[in-house]
User: Fold this.
Amino acid sequence: MTDLDPAKLPRHLAIIMDGNGRWAQRQGLVRTSGHERGADTIRLITTECAKRGLEQLTLYAFSAENWKRPRAEIQFLMRLLKKFLIRERPTLMENDVRLTAIGRLDDLPGPARAELDRSMQLTAGNGGLNLCLALSYGGRAEIVDAARALAREVAAGRMRPDDIDEESIAQRLYQPGPDPDLLVRTAGEMRVSNFLLWQVSYAEIYVTDACWPEFDLVELHKAFAAYAGRTRKYGGLVDPAPASLQRR
Ligand code: FPP
Assistant:
């Protein structure tokens, strides 16, 4: 589908990439093959979002809860992340994509963290799409971290408790910026799974049965078309977003 109205595309798309394991098992492959194919899907979807002029694509790449998986799978995912970061640099540069990350990044193993820092530095000047990887990310932990930052400012006498409002909390999240307009989840589960809890307040939600390794441009365009057909009311009666939401 090429006739998508650019004015009706989301500015910020967030994706819960689920179903790598199920896809692999269905193909008679080991779960880790699903993660490998999933990394290829990231390249496909990122490039398309960059070409379509989206401002931000946030991907749930490794949740705070994913540390509970078997050690071998965690090791595989961390090595894959490292390889992915190295391998994708030319494509990111070619498409003017800036790579950023949210989450408790200090939890990542040293080699993956070092390549992440390198990719972020290399792409920092790119002005196109912001590809934000959520790594060791938890939505509740993010809100806890923001609350701690505010508490420190109050304790230091730089803020009063009554100064705390939505804006001051939003500014202390891992990466202040526009809230997601569209949240896509693959593999059919109807859950938010601790992803961007603060930021998805007014996001449109789209769930597809397609697993992440089979999520292709046809699937992405279906999600965009569904979004284009939604009326966003932000709790009121008609568009547009309240000024406070537009700013973020
Ligand atoms: C869910 O599949 C997927 C994840 C664990 C996160 C996404 C990971 C990738 C796309 C791998 C590559 C990522 C990077 C950044 C290189 P699942 O294992 O939960 O699937 P299942 O629910 O079918 O078991």
About this structure: The mean pLDDT is 95.
